């Protein structure tokens, strides 16, 4: 027995992944009028989903906004519009349109084993939480898949005012589950952001944020290896 009584799951790259529709980028051009090719689109996706670090050059104001991006919806919008501007999206209207697509929870794709893992953890008698650095409500993604009822608590950074790797957000999440940290396993794709939970006594299991069709059982494998199901 592991002694775990609850599991916290990261959202992006763990339970769901943002996989843009190619139509979002159709005929999108940079300042020189060049169409953004596949490589530019992949780099743009990376920059829009990277969990840590600064993906584009930033002045002092942009840096403040970037580091506060998951603490309010306004800073989230400002930060990612800056990323888009410095990633070759020259037109302001196109930046707004793309931000709307990237920040729509219904545009996220669920990993093949997410529902089965959440159900198995619940069936094992453990409490389930979703802990995400995010600037908007992701609950509709779970509702669309019919799995919102498998989650006991959503702890979203923009709602609680703390973001990973700030230890305060892990304390808030474990408290929301009603459990001491040492009874909680954190599952996520970032050793730096999610793995910081170990500093307050949580266990940690890491998954790779691979494309959805390239990771059919990665979440299941990680949770099984941790001994909770």
UniProtKB/TrEMBL annotation:
<dbReference type="InterPro" id="IPR023214">
    <property type="entry name" value="HAD_sf"/>
</dbReference>
<dbReference type="GO" id="GO:0016787">
    <property type="term" value="F:hydrolase activity"/>
</dbReference>
<dbReference type="InterPro" id="IPR036412">
    <property type="entry name" value="HAD-like_sf"/>
</dbReference>
<dbReference type="Pfam" id="PF00702">
    <property type="entry name" value="Hydrolase"/>
</dbReference>
<keyword id="KW-0378">Hydrolase</keyword>
<protein>
    <submittedName>
        <fullName>HAD family hydrolase</fullName>
    </submittedName>
</protein>
<dbReference type="InterPro" id="IPR006439">
    <property type="entry name" value="HAD-SF_hydro_IA"/>
</dbReference>
């Amino acid at each position: 027995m592991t002694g775990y009584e609850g599991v916290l799951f990261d959202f992006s790259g763990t339970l769901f992944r943002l996989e843009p529709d190619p139509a979002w980028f159709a005929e999108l051009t940079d300042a020189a009028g060049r169409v953004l090719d596949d490589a530019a689109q992949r780099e743009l996706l990376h920059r829009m989903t990277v969990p840590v670090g600064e993906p584009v050059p930033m002045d002092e104001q942009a840096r403040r906004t970037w580091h506060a991006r998951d603490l309010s919806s306004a800073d989230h919008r400002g930060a990612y519009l800056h990323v888009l501007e410095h990633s070759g999206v020259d037109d302001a209207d196109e930046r707004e349109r793309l931000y709307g697509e990237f920040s729509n929870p219904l545009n996220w794709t669920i990993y093949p084993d997410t529902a089965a893992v959440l159900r198995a953890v619940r069936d094992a008698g453990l409490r389930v939480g979703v802990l995400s650095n995010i600037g908007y409500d992701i609950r509709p993604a779970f509702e669309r898949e019919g799995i919102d009822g498998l989650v006991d608590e959503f702890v979203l950074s923009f709602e609680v005012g703390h973001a990973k790797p700030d230890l305060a957000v892990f304390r808030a999440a474990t408290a929301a589950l009603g459990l001491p940290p040492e009874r909680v396993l954190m599952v996520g794709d970032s050793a730096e952001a999610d793995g910081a939970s170990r500093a307050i006594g949580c266990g940690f299991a890491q998954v790779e944020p691979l494309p959805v069709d390239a990771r059919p059982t990665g979440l299941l494998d990680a949770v099984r290896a941790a001994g909770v199901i």
